[in-house]
């Protein structure tokens, strides 16, 4: 079993060698280490919020193919990888926080139907900040978001990814200068 890494202090985020800081921040955005790596070029950051804002500027400035690639890096909620126990540590914890690891067979079937319809309509997985939503709210969001136009849904997914990234940052980086001592 792997242990959770010790949080970084803001000072460490700002002063670690670029490659080490990028490695420590690689999991902030699902299988997309290019985002924090690019944002780290803007160091020093006054706060976690400033680092998050830099990351989101990188995402929003990227072309549509990169944004869709970022969305596509996310696993399906209650998808095959989750059912096989093959999600990353962060995704496993996030889906569990929403109660997605304790579903009835009917709920699993509903997620499978919605995931398939969503992939068919948009060509990428449905992304929602699971830590901020319970299973019922997620199931309710699917039909609403399936009505979106592609551009609106890309923007919605990117906003949700921003929320996921924020929560992961708060977990990884201690705002106080001496919190890691």
Give a concise summary:
This protein has 181 residues and is mainly α. It has ten helices and two strands, in the order βααααααααααβ. The model has no long low-confidence stretch (mean pLDDT 93).
Features:
181 residues; mainly alpha; 60% helix
Description:
By secondary structure, the protein is an all-alpha fold. It has a domain at 78-153: UraD-like (Orthogonal Bundle). 60% of the residues lie in helices and 2% in strands. The chain is built from 10 helices and 2 strands, in the order βααααααααααβ. Strands 1-2 form a two-stranded parallel sheet.
What percentage of amino acids are in beta strands?
Answer: under 5%
> Counting H and I runs of at least 4 residues, what is the number of helices?
10
CATH-derived topology of one domain: UraD-like
Overall structural class, as computed from helix and strand content, comes to mainly alpha
Tell me the strand order in the biggest sheet: 1-2
Q: Name the CATH superfamily assignment of one domain.
A: Oxo-4-hydroxy-4-carboxy-5-ureidoimidazoline decarboxylase
Q: Could you say what the CATH architecture of one domain is? A: Orthogonal Bundle
CATH class designation of one domain? Mainly Alpha
Question: Any chance you could write out the topology, listing elements then pairs?
Answer:
Layout: E1 8-9, H1 10-15, H2 18-25, H3 34-39, H4 48-61, H5 64-72, H6 80-83, H7 89-97, H8 105-122, H9 135-146, H10 150-172, E2 173-174
Parallel strand pairs: 1-2
């Amino acid at each position: 079993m792997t242990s959770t890494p010790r949080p970084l202090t803001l000072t460490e985020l700002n002063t670690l060698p670029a490659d080490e800081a990028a490695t420590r921040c690689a999991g902030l955005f699902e299988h997309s280490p290019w985002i924090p790596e690019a944002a780290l070029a803007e160091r020093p950051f006054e706060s976690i919020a400033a680092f998050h804002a830099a990351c989101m500027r990188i995402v929003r400035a990227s072309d549509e193919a990169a944004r869709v690639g970022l969305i596509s890096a996310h696993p399906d909620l209650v998808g095959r990888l989750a059912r096989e126990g093959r999600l990353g540590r962060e995704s496993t914890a996030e889906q569990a926080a929403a109660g997605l690891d304790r579903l009835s067979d009917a709920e699993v079937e509903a997620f499978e139907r919605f995931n398939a319809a969503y992939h068919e309509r948009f060509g990428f997985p449905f992304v929602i900040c699971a830590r901020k939503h319970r299973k019922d709210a997620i199931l309710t969001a699917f039909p609403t978001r399936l009505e979106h136009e592609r551009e609106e849904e890309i923007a919605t997914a990117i906003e949700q990814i921003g929320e996921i990234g924020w929560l992961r940052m708060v977990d990884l980086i201690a705002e106080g200068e001496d919190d890691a001592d």
